[in-house]
Amino acid sequence: MKKMIFTACLSFAFLTASAQSNPYIVKTKGVKKSAMTAMQDAIAEAKEEEEEESQDFISQNFKFHSLCDWEDGMKFMVMPEKYDLVVRTFTDAATGKDVSNMTLKYKTMIYKGHSESKDGHARVDFICQEDQKPYYYEIGYGSFEDYCFQKTGVPTLAYLGDVDIAKEKLLDKTLYTKTKHYRIDTEYDGEGYQDVEVDRDMEVKVVAVGVGSRRYPVKIIVEDKDGNQFYQNVAMSKTNCGMRDDEFVADEAKYLFNNSFELMDDIMSISPRNYKQFIGKVVHTKIPVKMLNEVSSKQQAIPRLAEYNVMSITPHKNDDFCSVKLRNTTTGNFFYVEALLDHFKAQDMGKENEFFGAIFAPGPGKKVVTSEASRAMIRQGHVGIGMTGDEVEMAAGEANYVEYSDGGVHYWVYERSNNKLLFVQFDGSGIVKKTSVADGPYGPGVNPETNKKGNGKKTKKSKAVKPDKGWLSGKGTPLE
């Protein structure tokens, strides 16, 4: 809608801007803007907001540096292509002799500013990290200021700043393939490759990040679930890549990161338009969250790293939420949770923890081994004797308080919705020994068996309580 209004008013906006900048057009003070001019301002503000909201993983992490704003210490690697093997790029500053690009291949060049030769030619200066010799690239015409605004840059150099950031942000992360066309290496000591085709929207893991080429500096190697590896060389910030934005079209388009891969975890927010690719995928909880247990028909506390298959995602018609149906990969239980699909709307509403991407991350969670008897109780959201801590978390979520006693005995305390408290006592080996329910409120630091002050982690004031009659044994204690 914003784009339609903006297009409709484009001509008027141009005329208005021209009038405002013309020194021969004058107005008396106190003049009011017309309704259309006010609309133009509103459109400009909306466009700015839209541009801010469109920020993704690339714009947040990879800044384009024109040659004019290169900073001392920026690192580049010499990655000559076929043409560069004929035309020499660098000159040895000590001898004044041109140096073959093959001699400098894979060498790291550190930017050291720019200077001017005796005959008036502008130079871009470097120190080679490996041999510590000074080199320069001589600009054939014009001043440095005239040259630096062009996309041409310095030939052969792949910007290593993008490689370092990509390695930090992407290594071991889960991506999804967005094209069918990738490559595999064929030469260990060379740059030979073979084109391969893979499925779109396939889940892969980043196993290595290195340098690619000058045009596409970041080489991302990924691996699928069957252990097959392939890669793509991609442009991130486009710093010194030597290509204009409008050249990344047709076959070149896939060498932009967002056209080859999609990052789906805490680095990048999901878009409301691409939520469907999660259906059928394995995800895990990133934060504790409450979900509706289909078996017990009650809200159940779910801990971090719980693993699920996404069965369906159904957007609501009347609001910005969606209903997510999930199946626990351990118990087979079905759960439902309401989530927001739009990260920016979640922020505006102050409900960031209800955003789908804040609740879930792609990939497996914590593997929990359960007994058949425990699984039956977990499905109901009950805690029982003999359970492990992992099984208790699956049934009841993360405890509100933890109390420690002698001999490794400790208690997990849960605040329940009916103003009751569930006490779960673990023996020294981490197995549930007793469970009990007591009336609230319960203050941390009070041992539920002795009703005496202990060493709880929280210190808010509360009355001491006694557990209900006897500890339950054998029979599970429901969470609700």
Give a quick rundown of the structure:
The protein is an alpha+beta fold and 480 residues long. The chain is 20% helix and 29% strand.
List keywords for this structure.
seven-stranded antiparallel sheet, single chain, alpha+beta, 27 strands, disordered N terminus
Care to describe what's here?
The protein is an alpha+beta fold. The protein is 20% helix and 29% strand. It has 12 helices and 27 strands. Helix 1 crosses helix 3 (35-53) and helix 11 (372-380) packs parallel to helix 12. The two termini are 47 Å apart.
Strand order of the largest sheet: 3-2-6-5-4-1-7
Tell me the overall shape.
Answer: elongated
Q: Return the structural class.
A: alpha+beta
SS summary, helix count: 12
Q: State the assembly state of the protein chains.
A: single chain
Give the low-confidence spans.
1-19, 46-55, 442-476
Strands, count = 27
Could you tell me the strand content as a percent range?
25-35%
The pLDDT mean sits at 79
Radius of gyration: 31 Å
Largest sheet: 7 strands, antiparallel
Kindly state the percentage of residues in helix.
10-25%
Distance between the termini: 47 Å
List the helices and strands and how they pair.
Elements (H helix, E strand, L loop, with lengths): L1 H7 L1 H12 L13 H19 L3 H5 L13 E4 L11 E3 L5 E2 L1 H4 L3 E9 L5 E7 L5 E5 L5 H5 L8 E3 H11 L3 E4 L3 E5 L7 E5 L5 E9 L6 E6 L5 E6 L22 H4 E3 L18 E4 L3 E5 L4 E5 L4 E9 L5 E8 L5 E7 L2 H6 L7 H4 E3 L9 H9 L1 E2 L5 H8 L4 E4 L5 E6 L4 E7 L5 E8 L37 E2 L2
Antiparallel strand pairs: 1-4, 1-7, 2-3, 2-6, 4-5, 5-6, 8-11, 8-14, 9-10, 11-12, 12-13, 15-18, 15-21, 16-17, 16-20, 18-19, 19-20, 22-27, 23-24, 24-25, 25-26
Helix pairs in contact: 1-3, 11-12
